[in-house]
Design a protein that fits this description.
About 50% of the residues lie in helices and about 10% in strands. The chain is an alpha/beta fold.
């Protein structure tokens, strides 16, 4: 049994309203003169909404796409599930490369920072014992070198800890999206009003079944 079929009673349903299935992965429109503005694709909107809701990989969830009835054809759900797998896998692989680049830069910066710290501590020690300047000035420069040395380690720490964290968090989000079954439902205009087939893309709700 695949991850997509392992759904529990606590399944979270995410509804995404699309004017067309093509809007899930492409066809954004930033020009309001052309038609309804779509700043992000459906899958980008889904990612941002899940991140805002704090959905993580351990939670069971599914994606319901509300589309025009004419878009629901035999085999469409299977194709969308396979496409979501491929998309998330590609994004995860891309994030792996970015994470490796960041960690490499962090290690290189760490060695440079440690060397700089060693030089600064040596200069501080020399100034602390030398009588080249007035004592207060010696102390000022001595402590200044210590501070400068530790400040030089901030960039490696930032790269290894803080810059790498968003990549790992985003990877977990794509892992969650990858296990979400994609279900198609025909759109139902509220109160019998006409629903524009090019309506805006957005998550209409996040609820627990």
């Amino acid at each position: 049994m695949s991850d997509r079929d392992n759904r529990s009673d606590a399944t979270i349903t995410v509804r995404l309203k699309l004017g067309s299935l093509d809007h899930l992965f492409g066809e954004t429109n930033r020009d309001p003169l052309v038609g309804p503005v779509r700043l992000r694709t459906g899958v980008e909107t889904l990612h941002r909404q899940l991140a805002a809701k704090g959905l993580h990989h351990a939670q069971q969830s599914r994606l319901v796409l509300e589309v025009p009835a004419s878009e629901i054809t035999p085999g469409a759900e299977q194709r969308l599930n396979a496409a979501m797998d491929r998309y998330c896998e590609a994004r995860i692989d891309e994030l792996d490369l970015l994470l490796e680049e960041t960690q490499l830069a962090g290690r290189q910066a760490l060695w440079l920072g440690l060397g700089f710290l060693g030089v600064c501590l040596s200069m501080s020690s020399v100034l602390a014992t030398a009588a080249l300047l007035p004592s207060w000035l010696n102390r000022l420069f001595s402590e200044g070198f210590v501070i400068a040395g530790w400040v030089g380690l901030w960039r490696p720490i930032e790269l290894l800890l803080y810059d790498a964290w968003p990549y790992r968090r985003t990877q977990r989000m794509y892992e969650a999206m990858r296990t979400m079954p994609v279900v198609l439902e025909a759109e139902t205009p509220p109160d019998g009003r006409r629903l524009d087939s090019d309506s805006d893309i957005g998550v209409s709700g996040l609820k627990t079944l």
